[in-house]
């Protein structure tokens, strides 16, 4: 993604928005060759790891010259095959090729999603336990007010569960903002190294949020294999600072943010242009995911969290 802009880890959302009609479009041989040349150009010029970019492009070229892609007759099939081919070399889940998105007019449901800012539910469960279901880290314009409302709802609870089991990522600035609710100290949460300009962008806890900070509130985070990218950063930030207990499944394993680039009139791609660097570990969760402290099936994560909270309370009595 472009440094200085609100960064988005949204390729999962992009894929889901693609029109199914694109898949019926046939691919000409000459178009296939031009498409792969353009993909190679974008990867070599922009991918965060130049040496891996060269290997990825060489692999695509070899497959194309050997006629591998001839068997894929329409845009959807070709996009899937190209994605599998590039990922077989770089193993980067943020790099994907997909049909060009069809613009859609604003809808009432989209407006509602923006108003929610990814916070689909916030409530107090039995036993005075806060629960927030967060399905995306939205642009801070929408995310901050929603976060403030959610945190106000659970203010005064004895523990808080944040459910990220259906969270595919989002803005690192929004990750930074929500993390800041749980720390009083000025701490470096995460850094993003960007190939363009060879520079690093740092994300520190903010001195103030619009609600009340809760640095001592016991925090539990629910995860699944779908939990991805910015949601993984939130998990990793909290886990490496020993600030939360993670419960559920190992997350998806995507730590290289990028931006969407146009290939041609039919296709576009997500190219990772940066990479996360945690100040505690010196690395990130790319390819491995974030391993929870308590590993259970995602369907059992909430129940397990409630049991842990109850056991913790009984142990303190």
Structural features, described:
The chain is of the alpha/beta class and 317 residues long. The chain has 2 domains: 11-99, no CATH class; 108-254 and 289-316, 2-enoyl-CoA Hydratase, Chain A, domain 1 (Alpha-Beta Complex), CATH 3.90.226. The chain has 9 helices and 12 strands. It has helices at residues 11-16, 29-46, 50-65, 75-90, 108-116, 140-153, 172-180, 230-240, 301-316, and strands at residues 96-99, 119-125, 129-134, 159-163, 188-194, 199-204, 219-223, 245-248, 258-262, 267-272, 274-277, 294-295. Strands 2-3-4-7-8-12 form a 6-stranded mixed beta sheet, sandwiched between helices. A 3-stranded antiparallel beta sheet has the order 1-10-9. Mean pLDDT is 90; it is low at 1-23.
CATH level-1 class of the largest domain: Alpha Beta
CATH architecture of the largest domain: Alpha-Beta Complex
Strand/helix succession: HHHHEHEEHEHEEEHEEEEEH
Query: Which blocks of ≥5 consecutive residues have pLDDT under 50?
Result: 1-23
What does the overall shape look like?
A: elongated
Specify the structural class.
Answer: alpha/beta
| Major β-sheet strand ordering | 2-3-4-7-8-12
Average pLDDT figure:
90
Report how far apart the termini are.
49 Å
What is the gyration radius calculated from CA atoms?
A: 21 Å
Largest sheet: 6 strands, mixed
The proportion of residues forming helix, as a percent range, comes to 25-40%
The total count of strands amounts to 12
Number of helices: 9
Total domain modules: 2
**Proportion of beta-strand residues:** 15-25%
The CATH topology assignment of the largest domain is 2-enoyl-CoA Hydratase, Chain A, domain 1
CATH superfamily of the largest domain: 2-enoyl-CoA Hydratase, Chain A, domain 1
